[in-house]
Amino acid sequence: MSAEEAGKLRRAWESELARKPPTIGVVGVSGVGKSSTINTMFRTGLPISHTAACTKEFTEVPLRVAPSSGPGAGDQVRLVVVDASGLGEDVRRDPHYLEMYERHLPECDVVLWVTAARNRAVALEQQYLRRCPAGDAQARWAVRALAAAPCGTGQRMRKRRTP
Ligand SMILES: Nc1nc2c(ncn2[C@@H]2O[C@H](COP(=O)(O)OP(=O)(O)OP(=O)(O)O)[C@@H](O)[C@H]2O)c(=O)[nH]1
Ligand SMILES: [Mg+2]
After folding, report:
1. In this predicted structure, what is the pLDDT of residue 47?
2. Cβ(46)–Cβ(81) under 8 Å?
3. N or C: which end of the chain has fewer CB within 10 A?
4. Mutate to test the pocket of ligand 1, among 27, 36, 97 (most ligand atoms within 8 A of CB)
5. Whose CA is nearest to atom 29 of ligand 1?
6. Which ligand 1 atom sits nearest the alpha carbon of residue 54?
7. Residue 133's pLDDT is what?
8. Which alpha helices (H) appear in 20-146, and where do they start and end?
9. CATH architecture for residues 21-161
10. Distance in Å, CA 71 to ligand 2 centroid
11. CA 130 to CA 143: how far, in whole Å?
12. Is 88 near ligand 1, meaning CB less than 6 Å away?
């Protein structure tokens, strides 16, 4: 590729990034720690709740991040993180929430499904994953456990079972 072509490609790339910055959707059932995860990863101040369903609407958070390593180290990069409402909060709210998932997720470049590692029952989440628009070519699904119970809990439970 000539230097001129490389310059054109770079300008096209930069203009596309300015038009639509990379977008990460953070989704999952209610209360698994979606907003907390975003706050921890990006030092944002999204509201969270210990007791009641919290994020009622999809919330787009525009960010500027500076990678500390790699080819773009030190450059300011625009990024959008989308904090989703939690599925399963209430059977009456689910149709509205699922409609929002179907509308917003195809706009995301990466979708992160947050699940509580303390919970071994995954059937409910499997049902939601089958319904969500995972087949969309633009959305890549990264399904990982992020929200773990405090590590002391398991140790205390094991001690109690020991005679
Ligand atoms: N044990 C544990 N608790 C967490 C973790 N992350 C978040 N929490 C707690 O989980 C609860 C819910 O956190 P939120 O961030 O509001 O959860 P959410 O998924 O955004 O909730 P909705 O917006 O209602 O769907 C709060 O009490 C958090 O402190 C984690 O990694 N481990
Ligand atoms: Mg939330």
Report:
1. 97
2. no
3. C
4. 36
5. 50
6. 24
7. 58
8. 34-42, 94-104, 123-131
9. 3-Layer(aba) Sandwich (3.40)
10. 33
11. 13
12. no
pLDDT tens digits for range 49-84: 999 999 999 999 999 988 888 877 888 889 999 999
The pLDDT score that the predictor gives to residue 129 is 83
Of 134, 88, 89, nearest to 112 by C-alpha is 134
Q: Pick the residue with more confidence: 127 or 84? A: 84
Of 139, 148, 93, 138, give the one whose Cα is nearest residue 115: 148
138 — pLDDT class (breaks 50, 70, 90): very low
Residues pairing with 161 in the sheet: none
What is the torsional sign of CA 134, 136, 137, 138? negative
- Distance in angstroms (rounded) separating the CA atoms of residues 11 and 134: 31
